[in-house]
Amino acid sequence: MTSPASTTPGLAGPPGNTLGCGPAHPHKESLKMQTLFPNRLAPLALALSLAYALPQAALAQTPAAAEGGTAAAKSLEQVVVTGSRISRARAEGPNSVTVIKSEDLDKLGYKNVADALNALTENTGFTQGEDFGNTFTPAANAISLRGLGPNHTLTLINGRRIADYPTAYEGSVNFVNTANIPSALIDRIEILNGGASAIYGSDAIAGVVNIILKKQAQDLTLNIKGGGTQLGGGENLRAQLSGGLQGEKLSGVWGVELSARQPIWSRQRDFMADNTLKGAAPGVVFGRKDAASNKYIAPPAGSCEANAGLFEGSLAPATAKAGSFCGSGRTSPSYWTTQTGNTSSNFAAVLNYELSPAIELFAEGLLGFNSTENNTRGPAWTSAAAGPGYFRNSNSGKLEIWSRRIAPEEIGGAARFNREWRDVWHNLALGARGELGAGWNFEAVFNTSVYQNDTHTPRLLANVDEFFLGKQQGVDAKGIPIYAADAKRLYSALTPAEFDSIAGTSVGHNKAWTHNLSLNASGELSQLAGGPLRAALLAEAGSQGFSNRADPRLGQGVFYNTTQQAEVSGSRSRYALGAELNAPFTKQLTATLATRYDGYRFAGRSDGALTYNTGLEFRPTNELLLRAHHASSFRAPDMSYIFTAESRGYYASSSDYYRCAQAGQPLDTCEFVDLSPGFNYVKTGSRDLKSEKGKSWGLGLVWSPSQQFDISVDLWKIAIKDLVTDLDSDKILRDEAECRTGKQDAGSPSCVDAVRRVRRNPADAVVKPGEVIEIATNPINAARQSTHGFDISAKYGWKTADWGSFGATAKYTRVQAYHYAQFDGDVGANQVGTHDFSDWPSKLITTLSWQHGAWNHTLTGQRNGKLSSEDKKDWVGPYWNFNLSTGYQFNKKNSVSLIVNNLFGDIRKDPSATWPYYPVGYYLPHGRQFWLEYNRVL
């Protein structure tokens, strides 16, 4: 559950504690460690805000502790403040901050950290990940705060940058993988809503996610959690062991997390176990076509029946517009996973050493090993695909096209053709913190983070043509290959041994890294009417890079129908200088100001940005806070956008406007509109991209009229110009059609460019005449992108004499407008409420908790707003989903919990959708999931 709580910015807390960079005295940490989020300037606020994440008591410190001297600090060191006695209006600051506590991850039904972040109401953007299937990054998860894309959210661990996932999201966008961050040592996750480049530098345009690790543990704790899905698949088990150490000078905490999860296959869900359920034609398993007529040649009598056991006994004679073949409705479901399988081992440790009464050394380390598997298509072959796609059959004298889908029974099971990602990543921070004297503290830290990924992709070998067609007999006068192909070979099932003779695996090696050195100091400058004027200074330097090395055998005649892929790599260095002020002018009015300059060097050029962040807090009474902030931000261009020489893929759907015009068909009924899958593309990078520039605004209030109730309302807006994005393929296709049909000047530079970008088969081609082969695209700096909306959050708690304690929380986010214009002069109309809007227009999360004696129960409800249907003629949703957890504390050392996700087992479907019939990527088809969790203090 996301907490409605927000925090006041403060200066004196270190990155290891909260978002920010200010240090603290190592031995007065409970008193002088103050929140840096978002402006690092007001003391204690984050600790207080945690008390409001759920209606339970939380530990915090009093503001007085940060202001007292050494003697006062010692006397106040054990002060405890319960959340219900602190006015939320006193705890929060100019920016809203959402907090997810460690216990929320399981209690509220979240599978892992990525699942909890995905549920955030602020996370309105659609992202592809482990449950999406066919994407560049199915072994990783990303978030998109405010719908601005994964690369506009900065993700940190203990306030420090970590390495990107080595493979770019959608082939272009760099992002941090949230799927494999272990939860064993997580204390809490803070999410800053709004631009924060003046605090954290590049990437923090939509917001900042800071994952904060625990710093101490009193006991050795074992946690075991296991579960699965009611409908089958997804069985999983996780074991965590964590503990601490406490010596005279050395202290720390450590944790180990081991987990394993089975995949979920499409065939395990009845509603998508057959792709002909809505009348679609079966998939072609044995297909033989006359290339000249593009019609199937009927299979030999009995050949389909002889192979009826394939694809779980579903193979049968089939007929479509193009003729007869042997087909099955299970060609896609047999090989498609809707959730990846995964095994992981993660290790973490935090150590602190008292070098002197004023100086502490520290080390923080994370190490992870992950293996992820998925499947989106089985082995398939089309004759001479690396050439014309057809051949001359000397036995028939015809130009023919043969195709073959190979069934799981022929290869030893569908998992034989799984893709696998083997990841190793580490994050290490070494530093020192302590007192400088005169009330100033410092922290100096070096951190290094490396993420390595080996991708194993099963492929057919180059000998597959010969396997099905026999030895090539040469070429005809037009260069078309000639085979004396025997149809008996085509219509014969393979043995696993035969399949092994035509199958292999390519291996790609990917790596991303970042190294950073930072030095910061904070303290008091003078005394103002409302309190001390605090300041912080920051200096940073670092570098980052990546490399993607494809298997060198691609395109070298080893694998069937592959092209050579050049190694892509790049690096850049950066430096930053920053300063912050917190000025309490009166007891009621506080102002914050931060500014920072970031400089980058990459691709033989330099780039830089100066950003600022301002905030105001006005408290006319102790119960009411009025707040406002304005910030500028920036993002250096993604390195993949800059350095990628070439990447290939295909669009989810495409429309061929030119063929519609040729056929004289209106777009609303044209057979060439919204073709799925869409056209292939080839994408190249650009070293001339400029940095993006953003601005964000916020205006809100927090009202805490009583100990039991509080509410907040925040209006927000974020705007970006010079947005780095790829050319819109739909616009390219529209322009190409208008240029070819004379609606635009065919000789103009824009028309010449549009026609050049769309590569088509010749109009007289034997196979697929005039069809789009490929679209050439590249990144550009778009004109503008903006979004605005509001957040509302509330909390209410009450106690009863006989029935225990109750609490309720709610948070609602509404996107009021989203505008995007690729070029100057484009209208950029509001997309919210239209079928062009592809993100969530609204999200609501509510919780109801009840604690009675040794029992505790939490019901979580999430409502997502409506989505456009696949055919863009109707809507899907809005829908509710509920999670339930119930736990029992046997004694101080033993507890058990039952967690049910998707309590009512609802699966969201889209009546207009083609297979797999549900809104892929937006909703999960898993149905009801459950876990049993046991926790023991050893």
Description:
- α16 (657-663) runs parallel beside α17 (729-740) and α17 (729-740) packs across α18 (749-757).
- The chain is mainly beta and 938 residues long.
- It has a 22-stranded antiparallel beta barrel.
- It is built from 18 helices and 44 strands.
- The protein has three domains: 29-212 and 219-264 and 340-374 and 421-456 and 508-642 and 691-724 and 782-937, TonB-dependent receptor, beta-barrel domain (Maltoporin, Chain A, Beta Barrel); 276-331 and 376-417 and 464-501, no CATH class; 647-683 and 728-777, no CATH class.
- It is a multi-pass membrane protein.
- Residues 1-26 are annotated as: Disordered.
- Keywords: Cell outer membrane, Membrane, Receptor, TonB box, Transmembrane, Transmembrane beta strand, Transport.
- It holds the Pfam family Plug.
Give keywords:
disordered N terminus, nine-stranded mixed β-sheet, 22-stranded antiparallel beta barrel, 44 strands, receptor, Maltoporin, Chain A, 45% strand, 3 domains, globular, mainly beta, 938 residues
Any idea what the CATH superfamily of the largest domain is called? TonB-dependent receptor, beta-barrel domain
> Could you say what the CATH architecture of the largest domain is?
Beta Barrel
What does the largest sheet look like? 22 strands, antiparallel, barrel
Gross geometry: globular
Number of domains: 3
CATH topology of the largest domain: Maltoporin, Chain A
Percent helix:
10-25%
What percent of residues are in strands? over 45%
* Chain-averaged pLDDT: 87
CATH class of the largest domain: Mainly Beta
Q: Give me the number of helical elements.
A: 18
Which structural class do the helices and strands define?
mainly beta
What is the β-strand count?
44
Low-pLDDT runs: 1-86
Radius of gyration: 30 Å
Amino-to-carboxy terminus distance: 29 Å
